[in-house]
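Protocol step 6 of 9: fold each sequence in the batch and record its structure tokens directly after the sequence line. For illustration, a two-sequence batch is reproduced in full.

Sequence one:
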Amino acid sequence: MAETPEMTETQKYLFDLQGFLIVESVLSKAECGELNGLIDENHPGVEADTGKLHSGGFLTWGQPFMDLLDHNAAMPLLKFMLGDGFRLDHYYQIRMQKGAERLGLHGGNRPYDPPEYYHFRNDRMYNGLTVVAWCLTDCGPEQGGFCCVPGSHKANFATPREVYERHIEFPVVTVPKAPAGSVLIFTEALTHGTAPWTADHERRSLLFKYSPAQQSWANKYIQPPEGVSLTERQKLLFEPPYSHGRASLFEEAGG
């Protein structure tokens, strides 16, 4: 399958303006169904007391999960955002059932956090830790899920306490629409969190977090999953952080 082109002018504008980008209809209904079915087979469910689940390990659950690791729709966008040679920093799934409470807002340009940044220099963007979230069920204002303060990745003042306390009730906090099959990409420099989950169906999102070639956010370097066959490009994504002499993720892939 041929890779999509680098970011369009509209996508560049929206990501620079908002700090996030949503691309709809990347996964088909059948692909979402297969991934959801494999989740059902491999994990018992959310935590009874919270109605939520944050856990990793799903790369060993079947080839469809591995295919997301360097999906053709996301890789060229990440190349523009992070430069060639970026690496997988960590990954996990988020599941929420009806009634699950919000996750508080966090992140933002102030106070400055070196692994989580957004800069623009010499006509190009530079990102620190960047998230690719695959939405396997509908998320948005009517359901809950990801929420954020658009543009906060470039804010010059720290997030006021009132914004934290009022959360999605504060006017600048948005819960963007992300139908099942969408991919949501955002910089961790963005002030973001989770809105309470109000839908009857379960929220299911798979989050892959990538760092620039020379950087690590996590305190341990991620290891390839055991018993899983990796392509040469996927192997490169599990390389530890370094910059000089790093192999391209795109030359042999035709990118």
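Sequence two, same batch, same settings:
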Amino acid sequence: MKVASEQGEKTLEAEQALVAIGFKPNGRGLGLEEAGVKLSERGAVEIDERMSPMCRASGRWRCDRQADAGARRLSPGHHLRRKYCRVETITLNYEMMPRATYCQPQVASFGLTETQARERGYDVKVGRFPFQPNGKALGLGETTGWVKIVTDAKYGEILGAHLVGPEVTELLPELTLAQMMELTPHEIARNVHAHPTLSEVLMEAAHAASGQAIHI
């Protein structure tokens, strides 16, 4: 396989190659536009910040709850979903979306990096803890990796986190939930984590971010 960069063209040899070419919308020719659903230039259904489709009504684009309810009725098990048709949705903060890479060891992160936080003027405080002393990691024989929590030193606000290690993609939700609910590392550290579990690394990193680390 030939690849090109600023250093020029290079030939790479390998036994296997994974090619990810992406995908494209297939919304044309389904009658969506005739029904009033707005499509993008690529043929994707246009949505608003709450993930609702944009529909045309009385000359204006709007989010149509009737269309949503109709779609639910047409789907399997619609009788079980009727009570959820008016469930309130939220606007997603894409900067705080969890990011997961399923390699070995796994990589997970969300939010700001330490550098980005400093560039935005935050007084940054960081909590770190490795997997090496973690009892569960030792039992699994997978001690490579660490957890890093980036916080605002003034208020303790969680700005982001970066994890490398065994099953860290499974550990990420505790941190993203804490960030969404405006919890601080102090509260994560005081929460009882079962022993031995990989999640104890989060507790230890939170202790470090609070300036109370005792195992490192």
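Proceed to step 7 once all outputs are recorded. Observation for sequence two: Residues 23-92 form one domain.
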